[in-house]
Amino acid sequence: MSAWRLLLTRPAEDCAALAQALGAQGVASHCMPLLAIEALDETPQQRSTFAALQRYSAVIVVSKPAARIGLRLLTQYAAPTPDLPWFSVGAATAAVLAEHGLHVHFPDSGDDSEALLALPMLQQAIAAASAPRVLILRGEGGREFLAERLRGQGVTVDYLPLYRRVLPQYAVGELNRRVLAERLNGLVVSSGQGFEHLLQLAGDDWPALARLPLFVPSPRVAEQARNAGAEIVVDCRGASAAALQAALEQFPAAAL
């Protein structure tokens, strides 16, 4: 039985699945979703984009919510499914797309844009087109790094926002109360926005919570957390359950 007792902060459905996976490995956890997904209203742009997917050299899907909503729109507006390469930032998103029968490429080295850009299959898809054009399915806002790097390679990049992430409503001090009540000794976030919501909800309790080990999915989020004062940050190099479990095995609770 692991000594870890973790606070999980993913959206409710993903949080429950992660808790179940951890429980099977003897890791105790408590779910407190700090991200809620709200699908955007369907627009003519969404319909026309999915009806004309064949004009793209590649489609990049940056998250599981983008994959789920994108697949629904794909089923509605793109029949038959165009034969083009699909890419995801991580394995978990790729698994959602693969369940629909799509062949998806993703980096093994980490769940972030930097790892995706280094993926040979993506570079091959771009090089194969005389006028490469890439579609990125994502939520509102988000990093511009991926699009900027692709545009620097002469690629036309189109964004299609499909959802927004919001912070669920909690009472002031609720985060720290749950940590103390459940005797939690570690925090887990799955994205930069998830960390921002953690920081926002922590409020005046952040200095105390910042002393707990914090598990994050990428070097970028690790830097974000350290800059905010987190004292012990573990980069899992991925947001999947397997990546978190590997990090927990590498860093036993007693060693941190």
Automatic annotation (TrEMBL):
Describe the location of the Tetrapyrrole biosynthesis uroporphyrinogen III synthase domain by residue ranges: 17-234
A molecular function GO annotation: uroporphyrinogen-III synthase activity
Alphabetic keyword roster: Lyase, Porphyrin biosynthesis
Q: Pathway membership of this protein?
A: Porphyrin-containing compound metabolism; protoporphyrin-IX biosynthesis; coproporphyrinogen-III from 5-aminolevulinate: step 3/4
Any one Gene Ontology BP term: protoporphyrinogen IX biosynthetic process
Top enzyme class: lyase
Cite the InterPro entries for this sequence.
4pyrrol_syn_uPrphyn_synt_sf, 4pyrrol_synth_uPrphyn_synth, UROS/Hem4
**Taxonomically, which superkingdom?**
Bacteria
**Reactions it catalyzes:** hydroxymethylbilane = uroporphyrinogen III + H2O
Enzyme Commission number: 4.2.1.75
Coiled-coil boundaries: none
Any one Pfam family here would be HEM4
Q: Which family does it belong to?
A: Belongs to the uroporphyrinogen-III synthase family.
Its annotated function is as follows: Catalyzes cyclization of the linear tetrapyrrole, hydroxymethylbilane, to the macrocyclic uroporphyrinogen III.
Could you tell me what this protein is called? Uroporphyrinogen-III synthase
